[in-house]
Amino acid sequence: MTASDHPPPAATGGGGGGFTADDVHDLVAHGDRVLLLFTARWCAATAPLRKQLAATSLPCPLIEVDVDSHPQLADRYVAVSLPTIVLVDASVEQSRLTGAFGPQRVKDLANRPRPGS
Predict the structure, then answer these.
(1) Distance CA 29, CA 50 (A)
(2) What is the pTM of this model?
(3) Closest residue by Cα to residue 34 from 24, 48, 19, 45
(4) Which value, to the nearest 10 degrees, does the dihedral of the CA atoms of residues 26, 27, 28, 32 take?
(5) Does residue 115 fall inside a structural domain?
(6) What is the pLDDT of residues 39-96, one digit of tens each?
(7) Exposed, middle or buried, 9 (CB in 10 Å: 0-12/13-18/19+)?
(8) Structural domain span for residue 37
(9) What is the per-residue pLDDT across 55-71, written as a single tens digit (0 to 9) for each?
(10) What are the residues whose beta carbons fall under 8 Å from the beta carbon of 1, sequence distance 6 or more?
(11) For a FRET experiment, which of 7, 54, 116, 117 has its CA 20 to 30 Å from that of 44?
């Protein structure tokens, strides 16, 4: 599974998404750059952020992870405040955003130079 195999954020969905924890593990283990958006249905900041990000062109896949549906992923990436976006590159967390942030900050995060480049 590669980054191009994943659907856009709306398809991965806030209801837990059409993926498994193993899918996410395979994607990040493959060495791809991925943004993981940790959310929950009860998180008031999630809906407007999801709409904004759906209209934003990002250089890497954005996978929405509902923390209630995938608590093991929330634990693995220590997503304790919502929303949280984690930039994972070559299986390593590079950076994160937590709390109030807009699509431009997410785009800036995704466009950070890769380690060693």
Answers:
(1) 25
(2) 0.81
(3) 24
(4) 140
(5) no
(6) 999 999 988 998 999 999 999 999 999 999 999 999 999 999 999 999 998 888 999 9
(7) buried
(8) 3-110
(9) 999 999 999 999 999 99
(10) 23, 26, 27, 30
(11) 7
Is 28 among the domain residues? yes
109, two tokens = 């995060």
Whether residue 51 is contained in a domain is answered as yes
Q: Which residues pair with 87 in a beta bridge?
A: 35, 95
Question: How far is Cα 106 from Cα 101, in angstroms, rounded to an integer?
Answer: 8
Distance CA 68, CA 101 (A): 21
Total domains present in the chain: 1
Q: Let me know if residue 16 belongs to a domain.
A: yes
Residue 64 tokens, joined: 């929405």
